[in-house]
Specification:
Elements (H helix, E strand, L loop, with lengths): L1 H17 L7 E3 L9 H5 L13 H5 L2 E2 L5 E4 L3 E6 L6 E7 L7 E5 L5 E5 L8 E6 L8 E6 L9 E7 L1 E4 L11 E2 L4 E8 L6 E7 L5 E10 L4 E7 L6 E8 L6 E10 L6 E7 L4 E10 L8
Parallel strand pairs: 1-3, 2-4, 11-13, 12-14
Antiparallel strand pairs: 3-10, 4-9, 5-8, 5-10, 6-7, 6-9, 13-20, 14-19, 15-18, 15-20, 16-17, 16-19
Bound molecules: calcium ion (3 copies).
Protein backbone atom coordinates (compact mmCIF):
# COMPACT_ATOMS: atom_id res chain seq x y z
CA UNK A 1 0.00 0.00 0.00
CA UNK A 2 2.68 2.47 0.90
CA UNK A 3 4.64 2.51 -2.36
CA UNK A 4 1.37 2.90 -4.22
CA UNK A 5 0.56 5.87 -2.05
CA UNK A 6 3.91 7.37 -2.98
CA UNK A 7 2.97 7.09 -6.62
CA UNK A 8 -0.32 8.87 -5.88
CA UNK A 9 1.43 11.73 -4.17
CA UNK A 10 3.90 12.09 -7.02
CA UNK A 11 1.06 12.08 -9.52
CA UNK A 12 -0.81 14.59 -7.41
CA UNK A 13 2.11 17.01 -7.42
CA UNK A 14 2.24 16.85 -11.19
CA UNK A 15 -1.50 17.23 -11.47
CA UNK A 16 -1.69 20.27 -9.21
CA UNK A 17 0.50 22.42 -11.42
CA UNK A 18 -0.96 21.49 -14.76
CA UNK A 19 -4.62 21.31 -13.88
CA UNK A 20 -4.79 18.30 -16.15
CA UNK A 21 -7.67 16.15 -14.97
CA UNK A 22 -7.16 13.46 -17.58
CA UNK A 23 -3.83 12.15 -16.45
CA UNK A 24 -3.21 8.62 -17.71
CA UNK A 25 -2.94 7.38 -14.14
CA UNK A 26 -6.31 8.67 -13.01
CA UNK A 27 -9.94 8.81 -14.02
CA UNK A 28 -11.99 11.93 -13.37
CA UNK A 29 -15.19 11.10 -11.55
CA UNK A 30 -17.20 13.22 -13.95
CA UNK A 31 -16.12 11.01 -16.83
CA UNK A 32 -18.04 8.09 -15.33
CA UNK A 33 -21.46 7.72 -16.85
CA UNK A 34 -24.21 8.78 -14.50
CA UNK A 35 -21.93 10.67 -12.13
CA UNK A 36 -23.13 13.92 -10.66
CA UNK A 37 -20.90 16.88 -11.41
CA UNK A 38 -19.83 19.04 -8.53
CA UNK A 39 -22.14 21.95 -9.21
CA UNK A 40 -25.12 19.62 -9.36
CA UNK A 41 -24.46 18.42 -5.81
CA UNK A 42 -23.69 21.81 -4.30
CA UNK A 43 -27.38 22.08 -3.55
CA UNK A 44 -27.09 18.98 -1.41
CA UNK A 45 -24.39 20.65 0.63
CA UNK A 46 -26.61 21.08 3.63
CA UNK A 47 -26.86 17.32 3.91
CA UNK A 48 -24.52 15.65 6.32
CA UNK A 49 -22.03 13.26 4.80
CA UNK A 50 -19.87 10.94 6.79
CA UNK A 51 -22.72 10.18 9.20
CA UNK A 52 -23.90 6.79 10.28
CA UNK A 53 -26.06 6.37 7.19
CA UNK A 54 -25.89 7.36 3.54
CA UNK A 55 -29.30 8.30 2.20
CA UNK A 56 -30.89 6.49 -0.72
CA UNK A 57 -30.74 9.57 -2.98
CA UNK A 58 -27.00 9.76 -2.68
CA UNK A 59 -26.61 5.99 -3.01
CA UNK A 60 -28.69 6.16 -6.16
CA UNK A 61 -26.37 8.65 -7.82
CA UNK A 62 -23.09 7.02 -6.83
CA UNK A 63 -20.57 6.56 -9.61
CA UNK A 64 -19.78 2.94 -10.53
CA UNK A 65 -16.08 2.45 -9.85
CA UNK A 66 -13.53 -0.34 -10.32
CA UNK A 67 -10.73 -1.67 -8.19
CA UNK A 68 -7.15 -0.83 -9.16
CA UNK A 69 -8.21 2.40 -10.86
CA UNK A 70 -7.33 5.80 -9.42
CA UNK A 71 -10.11 8.37 -9.42
CA UNK A 72 -9.45 12.07 -9.07
CA UNK A 73 -12.04 14.72 -8.37
CA UNK A 74 -11.89 18.39 -7.41
CA UNK A 75 -15.26 18.49 -5.67
CA UNK A 76 -15.85 18.56 -1.92
CA UNK A 77 -17.73 15.28 -2.26
CA UNK A 78 -17.31 12.08 -4.24
CA UNK A 79 -19.65 9.09 -3.89
CA UNK A 80 -18.66 5.84 -5.56
CA UNK A 81 -19.86 2.26 -5.55
CA UNK A 82 -17.83 -0.92 -5.95
CA UNK A 83 -19.05 -4.46 -6.57
CA UNK A 84 -17.91 -6.58 -3.64
CA UNK A 85 -18.23 -10.12 -2.22
CA UNK A 86 -18.44 -11.45 1.33
CA UNK A 87 -15.02 -11.99 2.93
CA UNK A 88 -13.37 -9.77 0.31
CA UNK A 89 -10.64 -7.60 1.76
CA UNK A 90 -10.71 -3.99 0.60
CA UNK A 91 -7.79 -1.61 1.00
CA UNK A 92 -8.63 2.00 0.16
CA UNK A 93 -6.46 5.10 0.15
CA UNK A 94 -7.21 8.76 -0.47
CA UNK A 95 -4.40 11.18 -1.20
CA UNK A 96 -5.40 14.61 0.04
CA UNK A 97 -4.25 17.94 -1.41
CA UNK A 98 -2.36 20.35 0.82
CA UNK A 99 -5.27 22.79 1.05
CA UNK A 100 -7.99 20.29 1.92
CA UNK A 101 -9.01 17.99 4.75
CA UNK A 102 -10.89 15.21 3.06
CA UNK A 103 -12.26 12.31 5.08
CA UNK A 104 -13.10 8.82 3.88
CA UNK A 105 -16.08 6.53 4.58
CA UNK A 106 -17.40 3.10 3.58
CA UNK A 107 -21.12 2.22 3.62
CA UNK A 108 -22.72 -1.14 2.97
CA UNK A 109 -25.51 -1.72 0.47
CA UNK A 110 -28.13 -0.70 3.04
CA UNK A 111 -26.38 2.65 3.56
CA UNK A 112 -24.95 1.79 6.99
CA UNK A 113 -21.48 3.16 7.71
CA UNK A 114 -19.07 0.26 8.19
CA UNK A 115 -15.65 1.96 8.22
CA UNK A 116 -14.14 5.41 8.25
CA UNK A 117 -10.84 7.26 8.16
CA UNK A 118 -11.01 10.81 9.52
CA UNK A 119 -7.50 12.02 10.15
CA UNK A 120 -7.35 15.69 11.10
CA UNK A 121 -5.47 18.22 9.03
CA UNK A 122 -5.05 19.42 5.48
CA UNK A 123 -2.96 17.28 3.18
CA UNK A 124 -3.18 14.25 5.46
CA UNK A 125 -3.89 11.00 3.61
CA UNK A 126 -6.74 8.69 4.59
CA UNK A 127 -6.74 4.88 4.47
CA UNK A 128 -9.21 2.09 5.25
CA UNK A 129 -8.61 -1.66 5.40
CA UNK A 130 -11.97 -3.42 5.54
CA UNK A 131 -13.23 -6.97 5.14
CA UNK A 132 -16.71 -7.25 3.63
CA UNK A 133 -19.10 -9.14 5.90
CA UNK A 134 -21.79 -11.62 4.86
CA UNK A 135 -24.51 -9.11 5.81
CA UNK A 136 -23.02 -6.15 3.92
CA UNK A 137 -24.28 -7.23 0.50
CA UNK A 138 -23.14 -5.48 -2.68
CA UNK A 139 -22.30 -2.76 -3.66
CA UNK A 140 -20.00 -1.03 -1.21
CA UNK A 141 -20.46 2.75 -1.21
CA UNK A 142 -17.39 4.91 -0.78
CA UNK A 143 -17.56 8.56 0.21
CA UNK A 144 -14.75 11.10 0.06
CA UNK A 145 -15.84 14.32 1.72
CA UNK A 146 -14.40 17.65 2.83
CA UNK A 147 -16.97 19.28 5.06
CA UNK A 148 -15.38 22.73 5.09
CA UNK A 149 -13.99 23.69 1.75
CA UNK A 150 -15.55 24.74 -1.51
CA UNK A 151 -12.99 22.57 -3.14
CA UNK A 152 -10.93 23.37 -6.21
CA UNK A 153 -8.21 20.80 -5.75
CA UNK A 154 -8.31 17.10 -6.51
CA UNK A 155 -8.31 14.21 -4.15
CA UNK A 156 -7.23 10.85 -5.53
CA UNK A 157 -8.97 7.64 -4.56
CA UNK A 158 -7.77 4.07 -5.09
CA UNK A 159 -9.26 0.81 -3.85
CA UNK A 160 -7.82 -2.66 -4.08
CA UNK A 161 -10.11 -5.63 -3.61
CA UNK A 162 -8.99 -9.22 -3.15
CA UNK A 163 -10.30 -11.99 -5.35
CA UNK A 164 -12.47 -14.33 -3.27
CA UNK A 165 -12.29 -18.06 -3.97
CA UNK A 166 -13.64 -21.09 -2.13
CA UNK A 167 -11.45 -24.00 -1.16
CA UNK A 168 -11.84 -27.13 -3.23
CA UNK A 169 -11.42 -30.52 -1.65
CA UNK A 170 -9.66 -32.87 -1.89
CA UNK A 171 -6.74 -30.70 -0.74
CA UNK A 172 -5.52 -32.78 2.18
CA UNK A 173 -1.90 -33.16 1.09
CA UNK A 174 0.78 -30.99 -0.44
CA UNK A 175 0.47 -33.08 -3.60
CA UNK A 176 -3.20 -32.13 -3.95
CA UNK A 177 -2.75 -28.47 -3.00
CA UNK A 178 -5.25 -26.11 -4.60
CA UNK A 179 -3.58 -23.64 -6.96
CA UNK A 180 -4.33 -19.98 -6.24
CA UNK A 181 -3.86 -17.30 -8.87
CA UNK A 182 -3.15 -13.60 -8.55
CA UNK A 183 -1.44 -11.34 -6.06
CA UNK A 184 -4.38 -10.51 -3.78
CA UNK A 185 -6.56 -13.49 -3.00
CA UNK A 186 -8.97 -14.37 -0.20
CA UNK A 187 -9.76 -18.05 0.37
CA UNK A 188 -12.77 -19.23 2.34
CA UNK A 189 -12.64 -22.74 3.72
CA UNK A 190 -13.56 -25.08 6.52
CA UNK A 191 -12.01 -27.81 8.64
CA UNK A 192 -13.56 -30.53 10.72
CA UNK A 193 -12.53 -32.87 13.46
CA UNK A 194 -13.02 -36.14 11.63
CA UNK A 195 -11.64 -36.15 8.12
CA UNK A 196 -10.64 -32.63 7.16
CA UNK A 197 -7.95 -31.29 9.43
CA UNK A 198 -5.66 -30.26 6.57
CA UNK A 199 -6.19 -27.89 3.66
CA UNK A 200 -3.30 -27.22 1.28
CA UNK A 201 -2.93 -24.41 -1.25
CA UNK A 202 -0.09 -23.11 -3.38
CA UNK A 203 0.54 -19.78 -5.07
CA UNK A 204 3.20 -18.59 -7.53
CA UNK A 205 5.64 -15.98 -6.20
CA UNK A 206 8.88 -14.36 -7.32
CA UNK A 207 12.10 -13.47 -5.56
CA UNK A 208 12.08 -10.25 -3.57
CA UNK A 209 8.32 -9.98 -3.24
CA UNK A 210 6.75 -9.90 0.19
CA UNK A 211 3.99 -12.46 0.68
CA UNK A 212 1.66 -11.73 3.58
CA UNK A 213 -1.01 -14.01 4.97
CA UNK A 214 -3.87 -12.87 7.19
CA UNK A 215 -5.73 -15.75 8.81
CA UNK A 216 -9.15 -15.13 10.33
CA UNK A 217 -11.85 -17.19 12.02
CA UNK A 218 -14.56 -16.97 14.64
CA UNK A 219 -13.37 -19.22 17.45
CA UNK A 220 -15.03 -20.65 20.52
CA UNK A 221 -13.10 -21.21 23.72
CA UNK A 222 -10.29 -23.70 23.23
CA UNK A 223 -10.34 -23.65 19.43
CA UNK A 224 -7.35 -22.75 17.33
CA UNK A 225 -6.06 -22.91 13.75
CA UNK A 226 -2.73 -22.52 11.98
CA UNK A 227 -1.73 -21.36 8.51
CA UNK A 228 1.84 -22.14 7.56
CA UNK A 229 3.78 -20.83 4.57
CA UNK A 230 6.55 -23.15 3.43
CA UNK A 231 8.54 -24.43 0.50
CA UNK A 232 6.50 -26.75 -1.71
CA UNK A 233 8.23 -29.83 -0.26
CA UNK A 234 7.58 -28.52 3.29
CA UNK A 235 11.29 -28.76 4.10
CA UNK A 236 11.52 -25.04 4.91
CA UNK A 237 8.94 -23.13 6.92
CA UNK A 238 8.76 -19.45 5.96
CA UNK A 239 6.08 -18.06 8.26
CA UNK A 240 3.16 -19.20 10.38
CA UNK A 241 -0.06 -17.41 11.28
CA UNK A 242 -1.82 -18.71 14.37
CA UNK A 243 -5.05 -17.78 16.12
CA UNK A 244 -6.51 -19.36 19.23
CA UNK A 245 -9.23 -18.57 21.72
CA UNK A 246 -7.76 -19.37 25.12
CA UNK A 247 -11.03 -18.80 26.91
CA UNK A 248 -14.18 -16.77 26.98
CA UNK A 249 -16.97 -16.41 24.50
CA UNK A 250 -16.80 -16.89 20.76
CA UNK A 251 -14.99 -14.05 19.00
CA UNK A 252 -13.27 -13.12 15.74
CA UNK A 253 -9.50 -13.54 15.68
CA UNK A 254 -6.94 -12.61 13.04
CA UNK A 255 -3.20 -12.90 12.63
CA UNK A 256 -0.93 -11.62 9.87
CA UNK A 257 2.53 -12.91 9.03
CA UNK A 258 4.87 -12.03 6.17
CA UNK A 259 7.80 -13.54 4.34
CA UNK A 260 10.17 -12.01 1.80
CA UNK A 261 10.62 -14.47 -1.04
CA UNK A 262 14.18 -15.73 -1.34
CA UNK A 263 16.09 -16.87 -4.41
CA UNK A 264 14.99 -20.18 -5.86
CA UNK A 265 11.42 -19.99 -4.60
CA UNK A 266 8.81 -19.77 -7.33
CA UNK A 267 5.85 -21.17 -5.43
CA UNK A 268 4.77 -21.05 -1.79
CA UNK A 269 2.78 -23.78 -0.09
CA UNK A 270 0.05 -22.78 2.36
CA UNK A 271 -1.00 -25.40 4.89
CA UNK A 272 -4.11 -24.67 6.96
CA UNK A 273 -4.47 -26.99 9.92
CA UNK A 274 -7.00 -27.35 12.73
CA UNK A 275 -8.44 -30.27 14.66
CA UNK A 276 -11.69 -28.33 15.18
CA UNK A 277 -14.80 -27.84 13.08
CA UNK A 278 -14.27 -24.30 11.81
CA UNK A 279 -14.99 -21.91 9.01
CA UNK A 280 -11.96 -19.76 8.23
CA UNK A 281 -10.64 -17.35 5.67
CA UNK A 282 -7.18 -16.20 4.76
CA UNK A 283 -5.96 -13.45 2.49
CA UNK A 284 -2.70 -13.63 0.58
CA UNK A 285 -1.19 -10.32 -0.50
CA UNK A 286 1.94 -10.39 -2.66
CA UNK A 287 3.56 -6.95 -2.84
CA UNK A 288 6.82 -5.28 -3.72
CA UNK A 289 9.40 -5.35 -0.98
CA UNK A 290 10.45 -1.70 -0.93
CA UNK A 291 7.49 -0.72 1.23
CA UNK A 292 8.90 2.39 2.84
CA UNK A 293 7.19 5.54 3.91
CA UNK A 294 7.26 8.39 1.46
CA UNK A 295 6.94 12.07 2.31
CA1 LIG B 1 -9.08 14.18 6.97
CA1 LIG C 1 -11.31 -28.06 4.07
CA1 LIG D 1 -9.00 -30.64 3.26
Amino acid sequence: MKPILGIFLAALLVGCGSGDENDDATVDLTSIEGSPNCSSIQGLRTNTYGGETLDSTRRGSAAQAQFDTTYSYDCFLGVYKYDVAAEQEIIGTVSVPEDKDYDFYFYNAAGERVASSTNEGKGVAEAIDYTVTASDSTPLYVVVYDQLASSESDFELLLRGSTVVSEQEDNDTKETAQLLNGTYVTVTGATNTLDDQDDYFKIPVSEGKVISITLGSSLEAGEDIYATLSSTDESTQFAQAYIGNEGGSEAEFTDTKSYTVTAGTSEVLIWVNSIFQLSYSFTIDIADAEATDTN
